[in-house]
Amino acid sequence: MVSIMKKVDHPNIVNLVEVIDDPSTDHFYMVLEYIEGKRFCDSASNRLGEVVARKYLRDIIAGLMYLHAHNIVHGDIKPDNLLITTKDTVKILDFSVSQIFVDDNDELQRSPGTPVFNAPECCLGSKYHGKAADTWALGITLYWMIVGQYPFIGDTLPETYDKIVSNPLLIPEDISPQLKNLLEGILCKDPKLRLSLSAVAEHPWIVEELGPIPQHLCICKRRILQEGIPVA
Q1: At CB < 8 A and 24+ separation, what contacts does 117-125 make?
Q2: What angle in degrees, to the nearest 10, is found between the helix axes of 130-147 and 50-69?
Q3: Each residue of 210-227: pLDDT tens digit?
Q4: Per the database record, which ranges form the Protein kinase domain (predicted)?
Q5: Which of 27, 46, 124, 161 has the maximal Cβ count within 10 Å?
Q6: Integer distance in angstroms from the first to the last C-alpha of the chain?
Q7: pLDDT of residue 18
Q8: How many angstroms separate the Cα of 46 from the Cα of each of 53, 132, 169?
Q9: Contact status, residue 64 vs residue 197, Cβ threshold 8 Å
Q10: What pLDDT is attached to residue 1?
Q11: Around Cβ 217, how many Cβ atoms within 10 Å?
Q12: Contact 195/188 with Cβ under 8 angstroms?
């Protein structure tokens, strides 16, 4: 986790400020940026409207696109791992199960994420692509924001996995056609047919009201260290 957090810097990610190694206790401590706000899961006990959900989702997409651009798979996108600042900005946190790849090959064998957010391919025990699984978890988070509950959940872990793999996606009738189309695309059970994160970012429901998601000029800290890029 620490090695990954040292490499990232983005306004939609809770950033690492410093790591303190205490030789007297053989422990180290992470100092994170101070965030005034609350956990995302504490702010949405009821269904969110599409306007609010769109704004929050755009923030999550911006942070996740930055991670994926630097070959980092978060691995546990969910409301519990999101913070809302007092300025109503969403920030991604908790990189405890995240992984970084040396190239674009994001193939993984085991999913350490939260079961109800696991993609169908993760539930089958076979190899899967981490970025596509992150995108599925983003879709479950969006569904939770809009509907107020999870689309696939059982009384036991095997039952939950069975529903994720086999049950159809049920979307309430009061959801707009564009959002329905987005949910169906992002929660497509076949990872090869699922919307990519970049396609989600360009979806009409995302961009028609607010325009394209801003691409922040955040340089990966790894590049700063490797290339000696000056930082103001």
Answers
A1: 117/76, 117/77, 117/78, 117/141, 118/161, 118/164, 119/164, 119/191, 120/164, 120/165, 120/189, 120/191, 121/191, 123/161, 123/164, 123/165, 124/165
A2: 170
A3: 888 887 655 555 444 344
A4: 1-206
A5: 161
A6: 26
A7: 65
A8: 12, 28, 20
A9: yes
A10: 62
A11: 5
A12: yes
Across the chain, the runs of DSSP E, i.e. the strands, are: 16-22, 27-32, 37-39, 72-73, 82-85, 90-92, 99-100, 107-108, 128-129
Q: Is 76 a known active-site residue?
A: yes
Q: How far apart are CA 167 and CA 154, in angstroms?
A: 11
pLDDT in tens, 79-125: 999 999 989 999 998 888 888 887 777 888 777 779 999 999 999 88
- For the record, the structure tokens of 85 come out as 């600042």
Q: Round to whole Å and give the CA distance between 162 and 159.
A: 5
Given CA atoms 84, 89, 94, 97 in this order, what sign does their dihedral have? positive
Going by C-alpha positions, the residue among 137, 104, 143, 121 that lies closest to residue 192 is: 121
- Summarised one tens digit per residue, pLDDT across range 155-190 is 999 999 999 999 999 999 999 999 999 999 999 999
Residue 231 confidence (pLDDT) above 50: no
From the list 76, 88, 103, 104, the catalytic residue is: 76
Q: Domains in the chain and their CATH numbers? A: 2-21+29-216 (1.10.510.10)
Strand partners, 90: 84
